[in-house]
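Q: Okay, next protein. This is Non-lysosomal glucosylceramidase from Urochloa decumbens. I've checked the sequence twice, so it should be correct. Can you predict the 3D structure?
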Amino acid sequence: MPSGNLLSRRKRSWRANELVSRSTLQLLDFDDGSPPEHAWRRKLSSHANRLKEFNVTFREAIRMMKLGLRLWSYIREEASHGRKAPIDPFTRESNRPSASQGVPLGGMGSGSISRGFRGEFKHWQITPGYCEMSPVMANQFSIFVSRGGNKKYASVLAPGQLDGLKKSWDDGISSWDWKLKGDRSTYHALFPRAWTVYDGEPDPELKVSCRQISPFIPHNYQESSLPVSVFVYTLVNTGKEKAKVSLLMTWANSIGGLSHHTGGHVNEPFIGENGVSGVLLHHKTANNNPPVTFAIAACENQNVNVTVLPVFGLSGESSVTARGMWGTMVQDGSFDQDNFNAGASMPSSLGDTVCAAVSASTWVEPHGRCTVVFALAWSSPKVKFKKGSEYCRRYTKFYGTSPRSAVNLVQDALMKYKHWEEAIDKWQTPILSDERLPEWYKITLFNELYFLVAGGTVWIDSESLVVDADNKLNSSLLEDIDSPLRDSTFNSTAPLIGFDPHEIDDKENVGKFLYMEGIEYFMWCTYDVHFYASFALLELFPKIELSIQRDFARAVLREDNTRVRFLADGTWGIRKVIGAVAHDLGAHDPWHELNAYNIHDTSRWKDLNPKFVLQIYRDFSATGDMSFGKDVWPAVCTAMEYMEQFDHDGDGMVENDGFPDQTYDAWTVQGVSAYCGCLWLAALQAAAALARSLGHDDYAERCMLRFAKAKSVFEARLWNGSYFNYDSGISYSSRSIQADQLAGQWYTASSGLPPLFDEDRIKCTLQKIFDYNVMRVKGGRMGAVNGMHPNGKVDETCMQSREIWTGVTYSLAATMLLHGMEHQAFTTAEGIYITGWSEEGYGYWFQTPEAWTVGGHYRSLIYMRPLAIWAMQCALSPPKSILEAPRVNTMDRAHISPGTLQFLQDSVRKITPKNGCFGNNVFNWDC
């Protein structure tokens, strides 16, 4: 529970020297052992409070009862086939989530393991789509210190109050010394690195820093795919006696949960190159999932001696027990050198837990310093989805598919980690050293990237994709690219030809990438959410972003006639309609079976197609990739034409159909809406700009004619003098102030296009949102609530109208930045930091949820949309190609004739309302 301070005062994050003495920082400052000035920090003794989960109100429960019954039936049906339903609100983890997360391990897409800020390894996501939240408590680092035979210290380097630790004495890990209190030990996180500083614990005369490094390196498409992490221990002896220090890494042959009980697991010692040695743990997974091999290793040199214990058990039946292993380390600080000759162990028995240990020992002279380095790798070369498709992970392109590639992974990691850090520093330093940026922003900007590792990402080698020539779905491609639309009404149906959907196009040569909407919403690359999150990929891994866009472009031109029941209303329809942008790339057979989401019929959603066109143009303008623009142009045309069916009255503006037909899939919309209407206007302008760039001037002119007509309707129906109404209906929420109402303008400004509306109206709207949706919610300390009535009360029409969406708040802040409202922008976004990341918040760090309520109840932890904070960075530092693009009039870009332009201007002046936030406004074409 947060204190009242959350709502009454604003506090900076802890400075390094506020938690660790300045003298200790100086001592550790060799070999990068000292943590950076800007980092997220916690004491290891900090309490990891339980998180409060979201609950629907009684009225909402009644309203959703039929949906709930249909969803429950669907979940049971999927379970009968051994599959996980994409959305399952009924199944709860046995361990409730707590505020204990930290920086996850490894690169992207090769399975992930998270590590809590107090040292526990948890949140196992080795198998695609499955997350085991519980920690494996045998996986620990420990330290053993002896001085002159009189002083001895031994402790696990984690507090003894961790969840999952048994209290009874036995031959398991409870027999180890859990002496660390944690009040003199601190955790410092700046993704992809973390530092844990033990300032005199457990030995008062020993300063220890553990630096955790993972190869997340922007624009490096090889090493960023590696499933490996390095742990660099920096030791400083402040005493007058020489100290023998042994560091111990223990690891269970497990991938979380009860997988270690299934039997058949084998441990094997190895001696590699360059002094690297350790143990391989071959894990035989259950349910016919691909096997996993772990490697734990340390690097031996003239100062460091490495020994191993290939096998020990957690039960009394084991030949070497956890208690016996610990006793050996306390007495000797190392294991028998002959253990390297032990060979592979016998497969473990059903119900047994087998573990391994690597010890690295060194002598540290009085006032001396030393470095000891460990590495962890997990090799799971195959990705197998539930409906049969199997692929090789991206890293196998460089390391092969042998289980023993884990040895090469740890060897290379121990040799290359300093180069990784140089690249990470080069990337992060310009932002961290920018004194104009708030400290909290710098910290949160980098740490929100945790999701690209811990968000269930899958990155495969495109050469391993299975081409199934016999399973061709009805797919299409526009026949006439130069003139894709037959008339200016966009109502014709262009002739289509088929293609093989399993012929995978990897023009970016980076493989194929998937990331989940969230660990509770199991759908790959959910597109309405990717709209917000994609700024991170565009900025850091643009080739991956273009690859995902190509996947969706191909999906636009595909049809899947499989019958699907939509759970919201119980109606039936087909899985994928030609021309409709897919909601997601699937769940159990991604790329092949699209649209795992089945609550609503997303072929009738009004935001997906405009979002596709907007993302395409943003990526095209940011990268300047002409081949990309040409490749996706047919899909853009098809997506735009598809939208014409939703212009029910022929006035140029699309209308919503009285159900939640957009990303707010519980919030009903009727008629013209601020959210979808603004996206449609922006898409028309973006399509015109793309067409002009590709030489399709006629198409561009038609888009801008439609834009001018639709814009006048939009403003006439929704502009009320200070903001745009939620929709043009007559419901109680129709006049609500929606935080996300300028989403289309956000993309327009982000892409270097002229504004959709008069600048005064844009700023007036943003100020209204700031004054109401932000500042009237706990004084601006929680972010922007989605809906607010003009009387200053939160819109409680549905659960989503009363929620604060973290990613939407970041995107709103980015829009403010793009329009010169820096104070409002950073105040708005800081609410997410205060509530989610600060010492006084609710504990959502490294598991930022989709949403929370004013009362601090979360919904959907570890969610994709908060990556939208990188839209703020793109607003602060736009891509060079956008900055250097010539500033042109939209109508010039579309080459509209002077006579047509005059007619449009005259028509718009007649219909545009005269009331405005800053006096009378006229439609301004010279923006």
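A: Here is a summary of the prediction. The first helix runs from residue 5 to 8. Confidence is low (pLDDT under 50) at residues 1-13, 466-503, 890-901, 903-927.
Q: Noted. On to the next one.
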